[in-house]
Amino acid sequence: MKIYYLPSHEYIKVEDNIGLVGISVYAAKQLGTVTYVDMPEEGDDVEKEEVFGAVESRKAASDLFAPVSGEVLEVNEELADNPRLINNAPLETWIMKVKINDLSELDALMDEAAYAAYCEGLSH
After folding, report:
1. Alpha helix segments (H runs only) across 6-103
2. Residues 81-120: pLDDT tens digits?
């Protein structure tokens, strides 16, 4: 499973044409304790780089941007009752599962090495 990142700190883990979307470890640390996750509905269409939801914490609220365009196949219902799962394991705690319309959209995203360098630049 390959993982890609947006500059806004969302990730997408891709297998075939299905992607799991969540927020990065960096984003989870910046937000602090997550208190609420606003998610799309199953069957919704999301557009690349458009807002699909939000994550709220004690510190801030942050919009979530879709890394790709596609159809929402599933949302992580566990987050409704326990949004802190994102803090405990951001890369294992996806927010939505998407059927990707166009795999070439992934080419514009950062891979793990590029994202790590990007985050390094933010902390200076």
Report:
1. 25-31, 78-81, 85-88
2. 999 999 999 999 999 999 999 999 999 999 999 999 999 9
